[in-house]
Sequence to fold (151 residues):
Amino acid sequence: MLPTLEAAHWPTPPASGTDRLVRRPLNSDPGSPGAAREFTRETLKGWNLSSVFCDAAVVVSELVTNAVRYGLPGRHRVARAPIQLILMAQERRVLAIVTDPNPEPPVLVEPDDFAESGRGLQVVAGMSEAWGWAPLSTGGKAVWSSFALQA
Fold:
């Protein structure tokens, strides 16, 4: 059994002021992962960072799918745009952050060869340079993933 994932600190911000940041609110519907992938594609293309799109698109899709499935307890399920995708380009990496209103941490589980689901965070861990989560002061959590940029 894998250990419980503890809340991780955010990646250290770069010293320079070269960050680029965009945000996309998402609804709690099955089309949100596709909308998140398209937003990621257009954003990274606009930033001339298409080299990380393939990995980032898969990870963003997994994180948004998890937010739709597990991050919307009770009344949040019908709220308008309860999930946010945030993309940030720094000097050496791109960060993808997905927020949802559920404060419960993400659960990284042992892969089950016979299960039809439950591998999302394994995919995130395998395709990201690093990933983690942090509670939000406003409630809920943010799950983040980083992708290294070529020097």
In short: The helical segments are 32-46, 53-70, 120-127.
